[in-house]
Amino acid sequence: MDAKEDRETVTEAAPKTLSDKQDKALDAKGGAARGPGRRLHGALAHKLGTAILSGQYVPGDVLPGEVAFAEELKVSRSAYREAIQVLTAKGLVASRPKAGTRVLPRERWNLLDPEVLAWAFAGEPDVAFVRDLFELRSIIEPAAARLAAQRRSKDDVRVMRDALAAMRRHTLTTEAGRAADRDFHDAILRATGNQAMVVLSASIGAAVHWTTQFKQRSRELPRNPIPDHARVFDAISAGDADAAAEAMGVLVDLALEDTRTSMGQGAGAA
Amino acid sequence: MDAKEDRETVTEAAPKTLSDKQDKALDAKGGAARGPGRRLHGALAHKLGTAILSGQYVPGDVLPGEVAFAEELKVSRSAYREAIQVLTAKGLVASRPKAGTRVLPRERWNLLDPEVLAWAFAGEPDVAFVRDLFELRSIIEPAAARLAAQRRSKDDVRVMRDALAAMRRHTLTTEAGRAADRDFHDAILRATGNQAMVVLSASIGAAVHWTTQFKQRSRELPRNPIPDHARVFDAISAGDADAAAEAMGVLVDLALEDTRTSMGQGAGAA
DNA sequence: GTCTCCTGATTTACTCCGACATATTACGGC
DNA sequence: GCCGTAATATGTCGGAGTAAATCAGGAGAC
Predict the structure, then answer these.
(1) What local confidence, expressed as pLDDT, does residue A125 receive?
(2) Contact B97, B58 (CB under 8 A)
(3) What is the pTM (predicted TM-score) of this model?
(4) pLDDT at A220
(5) What pLDDT, on the 0 to 100 scale, is given for residue B265?
(6) Is B12 left (phi over 0), alpha (psi -120 to 50) or beta?
(7) Can you say how many angstroms the Cα of residue B202 is from the centroid of all Cα atoms in its chain?
(8) Mean pLDDT, to the nearest integer, of A111-121?
(9) Does the distance separating the beta carbons of A106 and B132 come in below 8 Å?
């Protein structure tokens, strides 16, 4: 019937046919919505993960017992336990018989896990953490650009060129433009031929994605980011390692500056 | 009575009082042993994780159905599912109703997760991957040393001095010495005051730990690593950022060289 | 008299089981 | 060729029983 109309909304598959009981229970608690492809335990993990990342539970806190908490959340123990296993796998909590499930110290958290990163940015982001991420980015990306300039294949260059063109067409104000931005940086990391770099790319890309959203939130971008990207592309394309590293360094610094001023509206960042 | 005698076997706490049925089932499959603090689903996740990391299952492969596989592994469906949730959280697999559980492409794997890293080094390590990790290390650690030189507190310096002293006492041939080595590098990462760095420290530290074991496996260390570390310490202690970065660069390069020659015995590394 | 070590009881997570609900794929009818 | 229907595997549920770690109590040594 109207299934076709729903399809026409394209892109992200909207939550459609849902079980009534479970979602009401979660929605009632103000928690994460559940959609297709998003199982109950996944939504639970999201809910609990954001609660921990937002400081609602601090390291050392011990969660209520399985039976009590599962009942409070209106889910079965199975679903609750599976959610806890997810959090355990990401280093957020640890459970032991008799001792209960307690939140681990922050340094045990896998903060570079893309999902944890998403949880960290679900609420108001920690300004200090964003600064740390950009600092990491300012170390990784110039080095990656240097390696990419030395090792890039024709195919890598083509992908980067396409991404750059897409960035020109749409701008960073559109989702398509931001996706192109991610593709551009991702292509550079991949061109290094280093698996570890590619994995970090997923994390850093996620972080950039979230911070970019915050930039957009406050006002129009004051500066055109295309020339910076073009300089990086030209250097990598020409195989000039030093120039690539330097251009990328400039790009990241400027991005950090933009983000800082956008976010600093609330907090007094120097 | 004889409990004391058991203690005298020292080092690794041997699995002692165990449930009989489960462990026999796992041992029979040649799988991961289960000990205190190691739950059944954790052991299962380890077993399946190593199977995936070792290439026993390749991306795109679909695992047997829940009921069939759980029965084959001699565990309940609950325990099996919880193990799968762990693998899902680390990006190794994804399950969908009717479609089954399939192994995701490598770029989706959270290779920087300490546990995944451990699984990767459980069997014969991939030489290319070790090279990638050292390349990442050669980017991160010098930059971290630079930041540490600028920001280190008195306390940081003290921890580093203690670790260095411990390295001198025990050598890298003992476990205590290797722990001191980890502490030293960890202290540097922490001294940067950057959370993201500290998290990476856990990953890189794990990687270094595993590769160091491989170095030990082949032969005595040909070179004394203390002077390299001492140079780094002196530079950081003196607050000389450039010297710290340079000394750390040398240290990592030499470590890579040692590892390469040790591992290259089998594979023909240039 | 105080402290340490051992032993036990209790609480909690862990594991297992069997059933039902739901989502997705694949087949067959229109 | 499109749409509805049925089959199948994952997802969710609730409860029962097991194993393990912590806390409290008591016996022994200093």
Answers:
(1) 83
(2) no
(3) 0.85
(4) 60
(5) 55
(6) beta
(7) 8
(8) 93
(9) no
Cβ-contact A160, A187 below 8 angstroms? yes
- State the DSSP string of B137-206: HHHHHHHHHHHHHHH--HHHHHHHHHHHHHHHHS-TTSHHHHHHHHHHHHHHHHHTT-HHHHHHHHHHHH
Percent of chain A with pLDDT over 70: 80
Asked whether strand C has any atom less than 7 Å from the CB of B39, the reply is yes
Query: Chain A, 173-212: which have a CB under 8 Å from a chain B CB?
Result: 194-200, 202-203
Express each pLDDT in B211-234 by its tens digit.
Answer: 777 766 666 656 788 999 999 999
User: Is residue A93's beta carbon less than 7 angstroms from any atom in nucleic acid strand C?
Assistant: no
**Position of tokens 């040393």?**
B145
The chain A residue lying nearest B204, using CA atoms, is: A196
Q: Phi and psi of A103, rounded to 5°? A: -75, 130
Distance from the A97 Cα atom to the nearest Cα atom in chain B, whole angstroms: 10
Report CA(B65)–C1'(D9) in Å, whole number.
7
Residue whose CA is minimally distant from C13 C1': A97
Gap between the Cα atoms of A146 and A238, Å rounded: 12
For B:229-248, CB contacts with A below 8 A are: none
Q: Cβ distance B172 to B182 under 8 Å?
A: no
User: What is the band of B33 on the pLDDT scale with cuts at 50, 70, 90?
Assistant: low
CB burial of residue A145 (10 Å; 0-12, 13-18, 19+): buried
Q: Is A106 on the interface with B (CB under 8 A)?
A: yes
Virtual torsion, Cα B69, B71, B73, B77, nearest 10 deg: 80
The reported pLDDT for the residue numbered A16 is 36
Q: Name the protein residue, with chain letter, whose CA is nearest the C1' of D8.
A: B98
Q: What is the pLDDT of residue A115?
A: 94
Q: Delineate the domains of chain A, giving CATH numbers in brackets.
A: 12-108 (1.10.10.10), 124-263 (1.20.120.530)
Report the distance separating Cα A131 and Cα A244, nearest Å.
23
Say whether B199 and A140 touch across the interface (CB within 8 A).
no
C1’ D8 / CA A206, Å: 36
Q: Please tell me the predicted confidence (pLDDT) of residue A127.
A: 85
Identify all chain A residues contacting B78, using CB atoms and an 8 Å cutoff: 78, 81
What secondary structure letter does DSSP report for A62? B
Contact B198 A107 (CB under 8 A): yes
Flag whether pLDDT at A15 surpasses 50. no
Question: What is the amino acid identity at position B157?
Answer: V
Average model confidence (pLDDT) across chain A:
84
List CB contacts of B259: < 8 A, sequence separation 6 or more: B130, B134, B211, B214, B215
Q: Would you put residue B10 in left (φ > 0), alpha (ψ -120 to 50) or beta?
A: left
In terms of CA atoms, which chain A residue is nearest residue B113? Answer: A110
B32 in helix, strand or coil?
Answer: coil
